[in-house]
Design a protein that fits this description.
Blueprint: H1 13-34, E1 37-41, H2 47-68, E2 75-81, E3 91-95, E4 101-106, H3 112-117, H4 120-127, H5 138-155, H6 161-178, H7 185-191, H8 197-219, H9 223-233, H10 242-253, H11 257-264, H12 275-283
Parallel strand pairs: 1-2, 2-4
Antiparallel strand pairs: 3-4
Helix pairs in contact: 2-4, 2-5, 4-5, 5-6, 5-8, 6-8, 7-8, 8-11, 8-12, 9-10
Organism: Panacagrimonas perspica
InterPro entries: Peptidase_M4/M1_CTD_sf
Protein name: M61 glycyl aminopeptidase
């Protein structure tokens, strides 16, 4: 590309600098406008429904931007009508073949306030920040998305921080009750559905609670800081498992917190203890970044 002031010999230095700044702003605006969500309507929705559903996803993106300083970049969002009428969003999933795709199965007969309070969008969009890790690494992939879903709702102003911690307490209590026997979370994850999804998801979340606490106490940083560093430098959609991502997160955090926390939580017999971590978490809400013109709560 030719210099911004090429062919303008004799132009004042200030005028030349202004042209460079204007060109840079145009490039940045174009890049930003191309990023974000692309909508796919895999069923018939009215224009009002489309607007409401898109706004719901944008709110989750605002929460992610406030928590991490960024969103998953360019990704595709698919909306389906759900045959299950039990709640606003009975099901969601992500697919990473041929790009990053989030699918939501929705019932728009529910009020939009139900969508705003629902955890499915923050959970599924969190998955898009990380690679596909393989079935044996389900505890890590689902654990980190489960751990992040409520702070994203907090960052978007939907939940207070005490409400976030209360949601964790409820989830951990239910998972501990479902985790019969002495099998570790990692062992359950290898068994798949036979291991029980609730103990796998929330056992993984217990690992990230422990990691978050140790990062703050040992390094003065939080899990969100490590995720931000990873997104800035190292995201790849395939070709890594939980062990590889743990090594990468150790490197980015300048610690061994991620690797050492495995033995203390998900590799230990039974369901991990979360009482001390939850007491710490209640006292330590994450620092938020003002995002999209919306002040952090």
């Amino acid at each position: 590309m030719a210099p911004a002031c090429a062919g303008t010999s004799g132009a004042p230095a200030g005028q030349c600098l202004l042209r460079i700044l204007l060109l840079s702003s145009l490039i940045l605006f174009t890049t930003a406008s191309q990023a974000g969500a692309r909508w796919h309507w895999d069923a018939e929705f009215s224009e009002a429904e489309k607007s409401g559903l898109a706004d719901w996803i944008r709110h989750s993106m605002d929460g992610m931007a406030a928590l991490f300083g960024q969103t998953p970049g360019t990704f595709d969002v698919h909306f389906h009508r759900s045959e299950d009428r039990s709640e606003a969003v009975p099901w969601g999933e992500t697919r990473k073949g041929g790009g990053r795709h989030a699918h939501f199965y929705v019932d728009t007969d529910y009020p939009w306030s139900d969508f705003r309070r629902d955890w499915t969008a923050p959970h599924e969009l969190s998955h898009l920040l990380f690679p596909y890790l393989g079935e044996d690494s389900r505890w890590f992939a689902e654990g980190i998305a489960s751990y992040l879903q409520y702070p994203i709702l907090y960052a978007d102003g939907v939940l207070t921080w005490p409400q976030v911690v209360s949601r964790y307490e409820e989830r951990f209590r239910a998972a501990r009750a479902a985790a019969r026997g002495t099998a570790s979370v990692v062992e359950r994850s290898r068994e798949g559905a036979a291991g029980g999804y609730i103990p796998i998801y929330w056992g993984g979340a217990a690992y990230f609670l422990h990691v978050d606490q140790q990062l703050q106490q040992q390094r003065g940083i939080r899990l969100a800081d490590v995720i931000r560093r990873y997104s800035d430098c190292c995201y790849q959609p395939w070709g890594i498992d939980a062990a590889g991502l743990i090594r990468e997160f150790d490197r980015l955090s300048g610690s061994r917190v991620f690797s050492e926390s495995v033995a203390a939580t998900v590799a230990a017999p039974g369901f991990p203890d979360t009482d001390e971590g939850l007491r710490w978490l209640l006292r330590n809400p994450p620092a938020l970044i003002e995002a999209a013109g919306r002040p952090a709560p």
